[in-house]
Amino acid sequence: MPALTLREVLDLDPVRAAEPELLAGESALDRPVRWVHSSEVYEGANFLDGGELLLTNGFGLADAEEEDRRRYVRELAARGAAGLAVEVGRSLPSMPPEVTDEARRLGLPLLAMRRVVPFVRITEAANRAIVARGLSGRSVVRPWGDDHTAALLADLADRAALNQPEVEARSALAGFHPGPGARLIGVSLHGTREVGAVDRAVRLLGGAGVLRAAFPGDVLALLALPVTRTGDPVRAVQEAFRAAAEPGLTVAVGHAVAAASGWLRWSDTLRAARTTLELALTVPAAEPGVPDGPLVTSARALALERELTRGGVDANRDRLARLVQHTLGPLLAWEAAHPSDLVRTLEVHLRHGCSPTRTAALLHIGRQSLYQRLERIESLLGLEIDDPDLLGELLAAACAHRVVRGMGAGQVRGLRTVA
């Protein structure tokens, strides 16, 4: 479900009237903008959830110290802001060089607004366009009555301002009636414009209710599994999509929530599915997938990747790179000079309980070759990789290495749905 991008926001008439000059973040113009806020609160980053374009007249920056200005930019980037637009010429005569420098270092889009345009005009125009895109799931504004399901899913996935009676009424209008005790699971699919795979999976699950809609970038669904169904609901949904989805599709499954837990939990599982899908498309997989089938993953399978990139992949780039270098530096240096696969071997081994049999099978190598790799890893790192005190650090660093390798891949894979 492609959100309005920063590039599209900059093309709106009220924004163009402000004569914005892009000072940093040129490569991030296609990141999604979830909302546009204006704030003169210097600690405004604390109120952001991620994906916002923040407008400010720069009053809070005018008399701040250099390090405070840098920290302000860092906090915005860490919260996953889509960009910062600063009005220059009134409260702030010119853009402080340290603000520009920090924004460039972090890849945060920074705009200098050269002409005075009331921020209310910009926010109204931008947010109206964002809402229209979200309601229809398309770039063309469509009336409310045209697609209730798509509108409801878009609002839930984007955590729009809703309330429980409204969600229940709109769900009923869309024919979605989760029974008492039902468990809801969000699903996001990439690689198709049809809902057929969702419908086939629902039939395999037997008795599951569903909200589903196709958007230009992906398909979004909210499944309701009845209380009578036993076993792990997430695993059941994954298995259904492995059987129902076509080869080449990528399917991300959120976590299970109780239908009675409220609409915010409904939103949580949809957002988890969307975030997981983005990671599945941009971060290399830890293990080989099924060569001829769909890639089906879940929020819990990528829990470590999601935690490492909380607030946005770009905002965590430097931190992850430092973690990788600190923990795995000798392995990376060895791999740069010798054909080997030591980091991947280490991660697969750790993910499977340090089982040589399982690791060798997944890597398609013999046990003896695996032992040689493990000995090389321990020799280079100067430690025993099965030491319980080291497992968390080593696994996090190996996972971070994959994330760093995958950075930038999303720019050519076509999805823009990080929640």
Automatic annotation (TrEMBL):
<dbReference type="InterPro" id="IPR042070">
    <property type="entry name" value="PucR_C-HTH_sf"/>
</dbReference>
<dbReference type="InterPro" id="IPR012914">
    <property type="entry name" value="PucR_dom"/>
</dbReference>
<dbReference type="InterPro" id="IPR051448">
    <property type="entry name" value="CdaR-like_regulators"/>
</dbReference>
<dbReference type="InterPro" id="IPR025736">
    <property type="entry name" value="PucR_C-HTH_dom"/>
</dbReference>
<dbReference type="Pfam" id="PF07905">
    <property type="entry name" value="PucR"/>
</dbReference>
<protein>
    <submittedName>
        <fullName>Purine catabolism regulator</fullName>
    </submittedName>
</protein>
<feature type="domain" description="Purine catabolism PurC-like">
    <location>
        <begin position="8"/>
        <end position="130"/>
    </location>
</feature>
<dbReference type="Pfam" id="PF13556">
    <property type="entry name" value="HTH_30"/>
</dbReference>
<feature type="domain" description="PucR C-terminal helix-turn-helix">
    <location>
        <begin position="342"/>
        <end position="397"/>
    </location>
</feature>
